[in-house]
Design goal:
With 337 residues, this protein is an alpha/beta fold. It is built from 10 helices and 10 strands. The protein has a 5-stranded mixed β-sheet. A 3-stranded mixed β-sheet has the order 3-5-4. The chain has a two-stranded parallel ribbon with strand order 1-2. The relative contact order is 0.08.
Length: 337
């Protein structure tokens, strides 16, 4: 397999590492060159050669007219504005490798991944890691206006493995002889980062998704409305998963509250925010309860052992599960009224 010689970047370093996770390429010899005749002899080439031809195993992104995205219709986009999928960032070498081989790579590293869980991790890892590398390599700013620059990211760390532009002649010559060795260091560095991100998704993010799906499918036993989820404990990221799983399972009506115990044993009831917002609730706890605590709250709610309701109405607490559920029930009934 091949990529270009000379200064290296994060995208081809990670792309080569990803290919090496597949049995077909695990022991392949790596050739780093810009000689087109030499590249033509290789089985697979990334980040050089001026071609994006999947059947020919040519994955370059530098040629004029190229604008492929992670989930866009192939050959349809000419810029971010015409990209057809959710993602608008043009792919780099690692993005191309991940788009075509990502699921095979994920299952090679975690064989238990399959079905919807594999699909979820595949998209999440692109969103959390690969897309940023695509954007950086293609010169896409993270925002229209930036307040500061971040110089400790993976692309920066890979860049620092190249020789300095003003290195003394002898040092520069020595660096050139170590170029392939330094590329291998860069590739290993990107692979470690990929592995760590993937492990976090598989061992933390994905179990949370499984727990949310279990709670979603069991919601009818929690409250007759089907609009309340009950979790064993708090601290788990659940809202991001909820939105995706509601769509996957065509949930109707939508979930309004999640309930769980905190570290002190209090039962919390938390409103679900509208997707894409941080503070706009689908349904908040009643206005009359907000900002009240303990005896004052109990009097207004008409229920013993109430603990608090936040002033913004997005969360409240009760000493018992039954009490928290009754507070939610009163909230849902008030909405109907």
């Amino acid at each position: 397999m091949g990529t270009h010689s000379g200064s290296f970047q994060c995208d081809e370093a990670l792309g080569i590492w990803m290919l090496r996770q597949l049995p077909k390429w695990a022991d392949a010899r790596l050739v780093r060159t810009r000689d087109m005749d030499e590249l033509a002899k290789l089985d697979i080439v990334i980040d050089v050669g001026g071609k994006y031809e999947v059947d020919a195993l040519r994955f370059d992104h530098h040629q004029r007219g190229f604008f492929e995205t992670f989930d866009g219709t192939p050959g349809m986009a000419t810029d971010a504005g015409s990209a057809t999928g959710e993602f608008k960032t043009k792919l780099s070498a690692c993005g191309l490798v991940y788009k075509h081989y990502g699921k095979d790579i994920l299952t090679a590293l975690h064989p238990t991944l399959d079905g919807p869980r594999l699909d979820a991790v595949y998209v999440k890892l692109y969103k959390d890691m690969i897309e940023a590398l695509d954007g950086i390599d293609n010169g896409v700013e993270i925002a229209d206006e930036t307040r500061y620059r971040e110089g400790t990211g993976l692309s920066c760390r890979v860049g620092r493995l190249n020789p300095r532009w003003n290195a003394p002649a002898l040092e520069m010559e020595a660096a050139k002889t170590r170029e392939d060795e330094n590329f291998e260091c860069a590739s290993a560095l990107t692979g470690q980062e990929f592995t760590e991100v993937l492990d976090e998704l598989v061992h933390s993010w994905l179990p949370a998704r499984d727990a949310v799906e279990e709670a979603l499918l069991a919601r009818g036993a929690v409250h007759g409305s089907g609009q309340v989820l009950c979790f064993e404990s708090g601290g788990m990221p659940w809202k991001e998963h909820l939105y995706a799983l509601e769509r996957q399972h065509s949930v109707e009506p939508l979930v309004m509250f999640g309930m769980y115990t905190d570290q002190a044993g209090m039962w919390r009831m938390q409103a679900v925010t509208a997707e894409g917002t941080a503070f706009t609730n689908r349904l908040g706890l009643p206005e009359a309860w907000r900002g009240l605590r303990d005896a004052q709250l109990c009097e207004v709610v008409g229920l013993e052992d109430c603990c608090f309701v936040h002033g913004a109405g997005f969360i409240g607490g009760h000493k018992t599960r039954e009490g928290a559920l009754e507070m939610i029930d009163k909230t849902l009934n008030a909405q109907k009224a």
